[in-house]
Design brief:
Structural class of chain A: alpha/beta
Shape of chain A: globular
CATH topology of the largest domain in chain A: Aspartate Aminotransferase, domain 2
Number of helices of chain A: 9
Number of domains of chain A: 2
Strand order of the largest sheet of chain A: 2-12-11-10-7-3-4
CATH superfamily of the largest domain in chain A: Type I PLP-dependent aspartate aminotransferase-like (Major domain)
Strand content of chain A: 15-25%
Largest sheet of chain A: 7 strands, mixed
Oligomer: homodimer
CATH architecture of the largest domain in chain A: 3-Layer(aba) Sandwich
Helix content of chain A: 25-40%
C-alpha cells in the first residue's frame, strides 16, 4: 500500500511507531495476558503508566513543580465551563481575547458564569487576517483571568503574543500544545484536548498553577473541579485509561524525537514548505497574515473553488486524506500536527503542484 | 499461555473476540489505511460506527423511540452532578435510595444542587445484608425524581425492585446494564459508565426520556446538558471515538450471543455456580442476603482472613486475575460481567476448592 498521510484536524493521526506498538501489545500488555484497558486504574501497572505519562509531559514542557497536571474528560469544551467555575472566585468578569471560532465558543460558555469582557483581536492587514499586538488589547481591571486560544484550528490563526497582565493567563492549547516551546510559568492554566498533538479523543490535559485551586464555585461538578482532581491524582472518577496510556506512548515518542525543541524545528520546516508553495502560486491562496499563520492548521483555497471536489478526490486517491476544510471556512485544510512527517507535507505539495499544472 | 480470566470490577475485561477484531484492524480500519481513532468524528465512516452502535444498543434494550441515547464523557460520576442539574427544574429535592457506596456517592454530589431525601434501604436479615422492599421506601411528595443504583459494585448488592412512583426514576446502571432484561419505559433516565459491561473507560451511556430535556439549570456545563447532547447527537464536543467504536463492537458481540435474554441466562448460571459453591462451604462466605446478591459483583471472604494474601497470590499464578476485594469491604471480589465466560467462573470455583482443601 502507498503511504497514507492523514491531515485530519482532529481526531488526528498519531505517530506511526506509537500505533504499531499499541497494536502489538493490544491484547497482551506488559505480559499480563490482558489489555492495558482491561485492568484497574488503581492497579500498580496502571499507576506506573499514569505516573510516567505525567513525568514525561512535565519533562517535555519543563512544567514547574508548583503546577499540577490533570488528566480529565470532556475535552476542551468541558474546560470552557470548568475555567470560569474554577477560577472566578468572587469576581464577576474575565477577559476573553477573540481570535476566532474557538475563542468565541469559550465566550459563549463563559457567559453562563460571568460577564466576559470580550476583546476583538482580529484585524485585516493588506487583505489578510491578522491579530492585533497584545499591547493593544484593552484588558479590564476587574478580570479574574485572561483567556485566549493561541491556535485557532478552524481559522488557521496562531497568536504568538501573550496577554500583558499580572492576572492568571488561561490558554486553550488544544491544537498547539507540544508543537513549539512555551514557558509554562507565564500561565495560570493551560488546557488541551488530546486529539491533536497528544493522543486519541477522550482525554484532556489541564496544567494549573497550584495557587488557583481554591476558588471553585460550589456548583461546579466535582469531575471538573481542579482541586478534587488534583487531590485524587486525576482518579476521582475512573479515568479514560486507554487514552491515558496512548498519550504516554506519544510523550515517549516525542522525547525520542528530541523533545519539543526538535519537533518545533520540524514543524517550522513543514510550515515553510507548505506556505512557501502556496505563496508562490496564484492557483492556491491562504488568507492569513504571515505573522499569524498557524503551524498546525493550514487552510488554503483554490482560485477555482469549483475544482474543490476534484482536488479532494484526487488527493484521497493519492493517500492524502482528510484535506477538506471546515464548513465555516471552506476550501481545504491541512493539519500538520507533530505526527505528520515532513515527507507527508512534501507529498502534499507534490500533488498540489501536479494538480495546478493539470488544472491552472 | 494458560487461559487468563480477569475478574476486574472495572475497567473490566472485554469480550475476547472484540479485542481480537480491534487488534487486527487497529492500524488499518475499514481499509482506510488508518485507525478508526485517527479519523474525524464527523466523517462518514465514523458517523456510521456511531449510528450503528446506537441502533444496536436500542435493539438490545428495546429502547422506545421517545428515549434519546447519549454517548457522554465523565463517567457515572459526571452524572451524579448532571442528573440534578438536568432534572431538578424548580424542585428543591429528589429522593435518593441508599443501597450502598455508589448510591451514597451520588447523594454527596447531589447535595450541591438540592436537599436530597435520602432513604436508607439497607437492612440486616438473618445476619445478611439486604434491601427493604420498594413498597417500604418513604418517598417524598415534592421530589423531582427518584434516584437509585440497582447494582452496588463494591458491596455486591443488587436491587431487583423498582421505586413505586410516578416521578421519573433515575438509575445508575454502570455495573448492571445489559446483564439482564430491563423495561426501559419504566425509567426517566438510565446512565452507565462503560467500563464494566459496555466498553473501555472514558465513555458513559445516558438513556433519557425526551420529555425530561427541558429542565436544565442555566449553570449546567453544556457538555453535561442532555438537550444539547441530544440535539448535537452526542457530538457537541469531540466524542471519545475509539471508546464509542469499541462499545459498538461489544454491542454486536452481545447480539451475536443472543442478546440480553441469552446473556442473562448465562449470568444467572455463573451466579449459581459461584454462590452455590460459597454457600456449601464453611471456608468461604458471602454476607449478602440471597434476595439481593449481585450477579455482576460477588464479594466473598475467607474464614481465615490471614490467608487472603496467599489466596490472591495463588489465584494470580493460575491466571485468575484481579480478585482482590475493594478496600471498603476487604476479602475478595469476583466481577462476572458479560465478558466473563462460564468457564472462567468454573476455573475460579475449581481453584477455590483446591485452596480450601489445602488450607481448611
Amino acid at each position: 500500500m502507498e503511504s497514507i498521510y492523514n491531515f485530519s484536524a482532529g481526531p488526528a493521526a498519531l505517530p506511526k511507531p506509537v500505533m504499531q506498538q499499541a497494536q502489538s501489545e493490544f491484547i497482551n500488555w506488559n505480559d499480563l495476558g490482558t489489555s492495558v484497558m482491561e485492568i484497574s486504574h488503581r492497579s500498580k501497572p496502571f499507576l506506573k503508566v499514569a505516573a510516567e505519562a505525567e513525568q514525561d509531559l512535565r519533562d517535555l514542557l519543563s512544567i514547574p513543580t508548583n503546577y499540577k497536571v490533570l488528566f480529565c474528560q470532556g475535552g476542551a469544551r468541558a474546560q470552557f465551563a470548568a475555567v470560569p467555575m474554577n477560577l472566578l472566585g468572587d469576581k464577576k468578569t474575565a477577559d476573553y481575547i477573540d481570535g476566532g471560532y474557538w475563542a468565541q465558543s469559550a465566550v459563549t460558555e463563559a457567559n453562563k458564569y460571568c460577564q466576559p469582557n470580550v476583546i476583538n483581536a482580529m484585524v485585516e492587514i493588506d487583505g489578510k487576517k491578522a491579530i492585533t499586538p497584545a499591547t493593544d488589547w484593552p484588558l479590564s481591571d476587574d478580570a479574574a483571568y485572561v483567556h485566549f486560544c493561541p491556535n485557532e484550528t478552524i481559522d488557521g490563526i496562531e497568536i504568538n503574543d501573550l496577554p500583558v497582565t499580572d492576572k492568571p493567563i488561561v490558554a486553550d492549547m488544544s491544537s498547539t500544545i507540544l508543537s513549539r516551546q512555551i514557558d509554562v510559568s507565564k500561565y495560570g492554566v493551560i488546557y488541551a484536548g488530546a486529539q491533536k498533538n497528544i493522543g486519541p479523543a477522550g482525554i484532556c490535559i489541564v496544567i494549573v498553577r497550584d495557587d488557583l485551586l481554591d476558588l471553585a464555585s460550589d456548583l461546579l461538578p466535582s469531575i471538573l473541579n481542579y482541586k478534587v482532581l488534583s487531590e485524587q491524582e486525576s482518579m476521582f472518577n475512573t479515568p479514560p485509561t486507554y487514552a491515558w496510556y496512548l498519550s504516554g506512548l506519544v510523550f515517549k515518542w516525542l522525547k525520542a524525537q528530541g523533545g519539543v525543541t526538535e519537533i518545533e524545528k520540524i514543524n517550522r520546516t513543514k510550515g515553510e514548505v507548505l506556505y512557501g508553495y502556496i505563496d508562490q502560486s496564484s492557483f492556491y491562496k491562504n488568507t492569513i497574515h504571515p505573522n499569524n499563520r498557524s503551524l498546525m492548521n493550514v487552510p488554503f483555497q483554490l482560485a477555482k473553488p469549483e475544482l474543490d471536489g476534484l482536488f479532494l478526490q484526487q488527493a484521497e486517491q493519492r493517500g492524502l486524506q482528510a484535506l477538506k476544510g471546515h464548513r465555516a471556512v471552506g476550501g481545504m485544510r491541512a493539519s500538520l500536527y507533530n505526527a505528520m512527517p515532513l515527507e507527508g507535507v512534501q507529498a502534499l505539495v507534490d500533488f498540489m503542484q501536479e494538480f495546478e499544472q493539470a488544472n491552472a
